[in-house]
Amino acid sequence: MYMNSQRILRITGVLLVACCLATLQAADNWPQFRGPAQNGASDQAGLLKTWPENGPEIVWNVPVGSGFSGIAVDKNKLVTMLGDGPEEARQEYLAAFNLKNGKELWRLALGKEFVNEFGNGPRSTPSLADGKVVALSSYGRLVCVALKNGKLLWEKDLVKDHENTTVPRFGFSSSPLIDGGNVLIDLPGQKENGFLALSLKDGSEQWRKVPAGNGYISPLAIDLDKKHQYVVLSGPKLSALDPAGNVLWQKEWTGAGVANPLYLSPNRIFVSASGDVGGLMLEIDAGADPVVVKELWRSRSMKNHFNASVSDGKHIYGFDNATLKCIAVEDGKTKWAKRGFGKGSLIMADGKLWVVSDRGMLAAVKAQPDKYEEIGQSQILEGKCWTAPSLVQGLLLVRNGTHMTAIRVASGG
Known about the structure:
By secondary structure, the protein is mainly β. The chain is built from two helices and 34 strands. Strands 1-4-5-6-7 form a five-stranded antiparallel beta sheet. Strands 2-28-29-30-31 form a five-stranded mixed beta sheet, with no helix packed on it. A four-stranded antiparallel beta sheet has the order 3-34-33-32, with no helix packed on it.
């Protein structure tokens, strides 16, 4: 009896350590656009419960070039994309920085900077896996480099390599998805075979299927009824592809949307667009043959423009154009609304919304449906802030068109 008890304790201890290590690993990394699960959420706990009198600590603030690229992190390194250089010859770069002090570690030139009346520079967010970084420039140069030193491993020119692929109005903005040893990317302009899967190892083509999206929405990897699949915008449809690129299900949707779909476990998908479109909630029966796609509701209460929403499973929080809102998952009805952040962005962690206004105001808001309740707010950056923050190791990473900063949001930090 004593020996059995000791054995049980040892097994329990091993399981606890494994759970702690898994949580730590997830909290250490923000490997892609919209975080570990592509849903704008982090499993980090122990974050600020009260707002410091002078605001959260600014750990570092460094100059960084133009662009709206997000920040991806693997342990002690972060990567993003930026525009920089002399006015007459500005380039886009993929660059890596030290997470602890913001010091630049390396950079790789990707070609001329994208120029647009709404803001210059790259829009796509790099993706990290297996010690590699995959990044996409505004003009369609796709590169895979070593995270350690920025060494170029392979590259593709999506426009030159694939006839009829076109540079979108705002440049290539979708973020590469690394999954199952492949890199998935949209080829805007392709009416057939518009989604491309390349080998992460060497860049060789694995498959090309279905019409392309618009070059703004990134592929979303999910599991429905134990079936792994990719949700993509394919022409005027929301489509799900299996790992070989075959269509599993489709639903008519606007081809003009730019905010990424949001997966709500176990079998729902929320998609939203600005203008007069609003939001659509789908329920997928992936076990049926054929798959059944049920429309639960449509609502104009949540019209995501370019930043997608987050969810706690029962409620959705996001920007209805320039109004921060909470709506119910079951029927889309508004629970509360708050103006003043402009067309901001948000992520969710530790039961809180971490909101960044389009002018650099950071606010922590309780993720609750009964009322808007703010823990505190501080001005952390100036100018246009359209990039959603990233969260790792108790640090909130935020950027605008000139600077990147790390804010300590861990409690007691």
